[in-house]
Amino acid sequence: MSLRAGENAIAGSGEMFLEKDEVFARADCNVYDFHTKRLHNALQAYPIIRIGPNWLSFGRSQAAKDIYGYTSKNVKAGPYDVMSEGGANLNNISEKSIHSARRRTVASSYAPKNIEVWEPKVAASILDLKAQVDRRCVNKTVFDGVHWFFLFSVEAVIKIMLSKDMYFLRNGTDHIYFTDETGKERAVRSIDRFHAVQRAASTVIWDTEHLAYWQKLTNTFSTKYADNWQAGKDANAALGSLVKERLQRHENGEELNDLFQPLVGNIKGEDAGVSFKDQVAEVEQAVGAGTDGPAGSITMTMYYLLRNRHTLVKLREELDAALITEDTVAPWEKVKSLPYLRACIDEALRLSPPVAANLIRRTPPGTSTVIDGEVIPPNTNVSISAYTAHRDPTVFEEPERYEPERWLAKGSDRLKEMLAVFIPFSAGTRGCIGRNISALMQMTCVATLVFWYEFELEEEGWEMEFEEWFNLWPLRLPMRARRREVV
Ligand code: HEM
């Protein structure tokens, strides 16, 4: 069957796939909604759905390889181009040669050989996280895991990116303190501001042609939007101040080994030729992704473990055999190859990918493209959400079940099929560059928590709720902790 954009499927009204009354509700950026899940449910009846005037969303996992894989000729376009106007970074650069050049510039700093540089930074944050959990062990005080796992992630990733310790965990807040351009002392909440601007941008960015108009309109008529647009400026100013401080340290002759260094210059002392605006944009991307990704994944791993106690018991057996009491923080060397730990995390990423949404790609001009057996015309926006790809029952048996064991069938054809459509980090040349950093953060953090504490949900059977804009955020994880007798 040959498809022209706009044919087949059911018409949505933009990426958000809104129903009429929701258009007004979301217009005030106020509604917690899991639109990818709603779209997924609709895809059970239609294999492809048109979710925008020129945008097709696919429902069968095989489409993932054709859309995002290494052999795909599809490109990033549309909203990514708009985003790059505020500063070009690895994620939003569409043009292939410019993207490859930027990726080459930073690639070595993201490489696994640097884990030994990142590990002490991550471990220090895990110790501070433990100190906070310890306080809550007294009287078994209920605490919100989401709050603390997000603080852990943002603090660790800022250290890895900029060699700067923000002490978010010790202070219990995500405030960045800085002096702005006008000399005013400011305190800006980082996670809060990153998230607020997503609430505004993700509703209007799809209409790239009229974006400026939507920004003006929403800014004028909605106080909520106005605050959320302001959040983008606040986050940019706060991270800009951290970048200036980092550049000053470089000027002062400090030799810092972090993700930022290649954006300044290489080991031969040659200038990297990256503008200040782009440097800030790169920091925004890495800090934003490095916060929401690991925090979402750690939260959801803990949530699924607590809801499926037999998996927690099994993971603890694996950790008890691998770790000793001297391991106040689980060392990477001891946990990196633990199969069940990895499987528990991957299974949480499968069911609740932190980037669940339809990541837009454009088919090449001049020639049609085949996606999941369908002939798609040139210049068509196409996507499949990780949420949907990961729930294909022909690949993942009983897809709604949290079953880490499914990842353990090493070398089997089934495992190969699963890995081919497992896309929490997207895939191909535009796949996540931060996977090694994520693995370090996720595995050492989850291993330490499960080894040292007994956890329970505040209420048995409690169910997670999400808020989704570009990224998928778990809302709360009310839990209690008790120190284990570790011998
Ligand atoms: C569990 C953790 C994470 C998940 C699930 C995740 C997911 C993703 C996804 C889905 C993309 C593709 C985005 C798109 O096509 O629009 C991406 C790209 C990217 N991520 Fe991650 N990410 C994670 C952690 C990190 C970390 C820790 C960093 C950096 C410290 C990072 C930095 C980036 C960058 C720079 C890109 C753009 C890559 C490019 O296009 O060349 N991510 N990530």
Structure description:
The chain is an alpha+beta fold and about 475 residues long. Helices cover about 50% and strands about 10% of the residues. The chain has helices at about 20-25, 35-45, 65-70, 80-85, 95-110, 115-135, 145-160, 170, 190-205, 210-220, 225-250, 260-265, 275-305, 310-320, 330-335, 340-350, 385-390, 415-420, 435-450; strands at about 50, 55-60, 145, 175-180, 185-190, 360, 370, 375, 380-385, 455, 465-470, 470-475, 480-485. β4 (about 175-180) and β5 (about 185-190) form a beta hairpin. α10 (about 210-220) packs across α11 (about 225-250). The longest helix has about 30 residues, at about 275-305. Bound molecules: protoporphyrin IX containing FE. Protoporphyrin IX containing FE binds next to α13 and α19.
Salient structural properties:
13 strands, binds protoporphyrin IX containing FE, Cytochrome p450, single chain, 19 helices, disordered N terminus
Q: What is the number of E strands?
A: 13
- What low-confidence regions span 5 or more consecutive residues with pLDDT below 50? 1-25
* Biggest sheet, spatial arrangement of strands: 1-2-9-6
Percent in helix: 40-55%
- Structural class category: alpha+beta
Strand content: 5-15%
Tally of DSSP helical segments? 19
- When the domains are counted, the total is 1
Q: Cα-atom Rg, whole angstroms?
A: 22 Å
Q: What is the end-to-end distance?
A: 64 Å
CATH top level label? Mainly Alpha
The H-level CATH homologous superfamily, spelled out, is Cytochrome P450
Major sheet description = 4 strands, mixed
- Tell me the CATH topology: Cytochrome p450
Spatial shape: globular
Task: Please give the oligomerization state of what you see.
Answer: single chain
Query: What would the average pLDDT be, to the nearest integer?
Result: 92
Corresponding CATH architecture: Orthogonal Bundle
Pfam families: p450
Keywords: Heme, Iron, Metal-binding, Monooxygenase, Oxidoreductase
Binding site for heme: 432
Protein name: Cytochrome P450
